[in-house]
Amino acid sequence: ESSAAVDSLAAMASRAARLEGEFEEKAEEVRVAAVVAGHGTAVDVNFDFKDQTREAVFDKGQSRRIWGELHKVLDSSDVVLQVLDARDPQGTRCIWLEEYIKRECPHKHVVLIINKCDLVPNAVTARWLAILSKQHPTIAFHSSVTHPFGKGALINILRQFKKLHTDRKSISCGIVGYPNVGKSSVINTLRGKKVVNVAPLPGHTKVWQYVNLFKHIFLVDSPGVVHESHSNSTADAVLKGVVRVESLRDSAPQFIPSLLSRVSPHHLRRLYNVTPPVLPPEPITATPSPAAHDAAEAFLEALARRYGKLIRGGDPDTGAVARILLHDFQRGKIPWFVEPPRKEGEEEAKGPAAGRHGVEVPGQDLMEVKSAALIREDMDEEEVVAEDDGELEAGEPSA
Length: 399
Description:
The protein has 11 helices and 6 strands. By secondary structure, the protein is α/β, with parallel strands linked by helices. It has a 6-stranded mixed beta sheet with strand order 3-2-1-4-6-5, with helices on both faces. The longest helix has 35 residues, at 2-36. The protein is globular.
């Protein structure tokens, strides 16, 4: 029996060595092809191979079931509405999806919706509109049943697409995008009432669902999908809202340095009455320095003591405070946004856009966008918060 076991282990080791060799050969072929194509050596040769050591919590929006739901939505849609977060439109954009539609389904139309535009300055929204409108029809949008923005412009575009399909009795418009960008909220806004469940946390929509907008126009809701996961660091996944904060547990404090590097200390001081450290801006994929971690830890301890978030022995509960900060960051309570690129001589988009996309995009007056600080969303917020988490109200320490 021992001899058989030895033979079995030897065969297993031999097979593993052979598979490793085949993998390295394929990786080398990819590298050579990249150099020949002029991409240099920056191509990720492991793109098609999922990193099994990466924690499952950071792989949300990438399951086979989610991708199956997405392809059902694409197959059944004549128009694809991709919802982006106005705070980071390029970071929540699925370029692969756009290229896939252009390559495999050129007859389908793509519309970009810059949602949550009430969370960023109007000038930032205008610049993103000017940039993205060069590629697809783009609408600035604020999801709200009672105080919407961009609803009329989006409906106008959908009606134009219906006129283009005179041979069809009706058209279907699939709504896709990253988790937690507000896809279901866009549907409720278009309908003027709650027709699909929403929540300010990722992964709430599980399956695709049809919604009747008008007699000849249907909407199709879909779960959030993350494709370019290899380009997202774990901190990036958390700050983009792909990961539920509750699932981080005790690891939440490690993402605070990245948060602090993206937020103005002025906003944190105004919200929490605690002076935060001033950290230099860091690239999304950068690893915070030890000094940044120490500064963030000191800030969390001061914040925990300021609001009475203590554990047994009087030590500050930095984990609970970190989760609250991440919640506030994801939901827009902490102001932040990614600065859009700008070339010299670039002008802002004004008035109706030319119909080079097959439709004419109505002009939008961004001055009508209501401030998030003045309007409370009337969506049904089904918040899932850990027992030791809560709200930090400025100037009112908890007992």
